[in-house]
Amino acid sequence: MTTKYAFFEGSVVPIDEAKVSIMTHAFNYGTGCFEGIRAYWNETEEQLYVLKLREHYQRFMQSCKIILISLPYDVDEMCKTTIELLQKEAFREDTYIRPLAYKAESGVGVRLHNLRDACAIFATPFGKYIDKEEGAKVGVSSWRRINDNAVPARAKITGAYINSALIKTDAMMNGFDEAIVLTQEGHVSEGSAENLFIVRDGKLVTSPVTDDILEGITRTTLMELAHKELGLETVERPIDRTELYVADEAFFCGTGVQIAAISEIDHRPVGTGKIGPIVTELRDLYFSIARGEREDYKHWVSPVYAPVPAV
Ligand code: PMP
């Protein structure tokens, strides 16, 4: 299955009609923001569940606010439009949804003000992000994370992803699966496009929101699950580079990457070098909730299709 439609210029149109000019401001200067949302196919229920739909559009609106984009839609309308687009696509497999808001005006001149804003959404079938979800080999990047006073990482800004692209490609060219990137001050920030947790002495530790991370929805979700379901607290505090080398477990999380265990950092095994018990438990929990298999967490997922009537 491939993408057939998009929400573009206010309505759902065939994907081939959803085109922008090379003169578009956002194409020239990266003046847009976006979201990445996943929907999970539940074969038993023949249902597609969108995970944390509202939370993604709440963050989308925050990104818009930071880069002075104003849209004629609110969170509820964006959620509704997304569900309608997915119904039209009729995917019966795991799907990735990409909303975009951008400076749509044609012409030259770097700024954010006095420019026409637009919004678009497309969806596409999508599987794994990192091949080795069972244990990625990771290096600390020689690139640094963008700083809040230069390019805010808290907003999911299209142009900011050149930082992620430099980090990711450099890591792969150096033989790693992913990278961990440090802040300008030298603390651990996150992965190229995912948040990071380590386990030390039975506690989860993750970088604080003030260390130039994207305030990940999966990150918040896992902190809540760890607390409620595993009785584990998460400490949000600055992390030193060498704490990575002595961690018992380490893993990435994010909508795209889902939950990916890290088996090696800078050629040193993480813990035993095998996928650890905490990440394993969190991952199983996360996938069952995402696929709508847990009644007690059904409010975290939004069904796309009308339920199939019981025979
Ligand atoms: N950090 C960055 C830079 C990202 O691009 C992403 C993916 N959106 C994340 C973290 C994870 O965020 P989320 O869990 O909200 O997908």
* Regions with little confidence, pLDDT below 50 for 5+ residues: none
Order of helices and strands: EEHEEEHHEEEHEEEEHEHEEEHE
Question: In terms of structural class, how would the helical and strand content be classed?
Answer: alpha+beta
Mean of all residue-level pLDDT scores = 96
Question: What ligand species are in this complex?
Answer: 4'-deoxy-4'-aminopyridoxal-5'-phosphate
Question: In DSSP terms, counting alpha (H) and pi (I) runs of 4 or more, how many helices?
Answer: 7
Percent of residues in beta strands: 25-35%
Distance between the termini: 28 Å
What's the β-strand tally? Answer: 17
User: What's the gyration radius in Å?
Assistant: 20 Å
Bulk shape: globular
Largest sheet: 9 strands, mixed
- Residue share in helix: 25-40%
Describe the structure in your own words:
The protein is α+β, with helices and mostly antiparallel strands and 311 residues long. It is 26% helix and 29% strand. The chain has seven helices and 17 strands. Strands 8, 9, 10, 11, 12, 13, 14, 15 and 16 form a nine-stranded mixed beta sheet that branches. Strands 1, 2, 3, 4, 5, 6, 7 and 17 form an eight-stranded antiparallel beta sheet that branches. A hairpin with a 2-residue loop joins strand 1 (5-8) and strand 2. Helix 2 crosses helix 3 (75-89) and helix 5 packs across helix 7 (277-290). It is globular, with a radius of gyration of 20 Å. The two termini are 28 Å apart. The mean pLDDT is 96. The chain binds 4'-deoxy-4'-aminopyridoxal-5'-phosphate. 4'-deoxy-4'-aminopyridoxal-5'-phosphate binds next to helix 5.
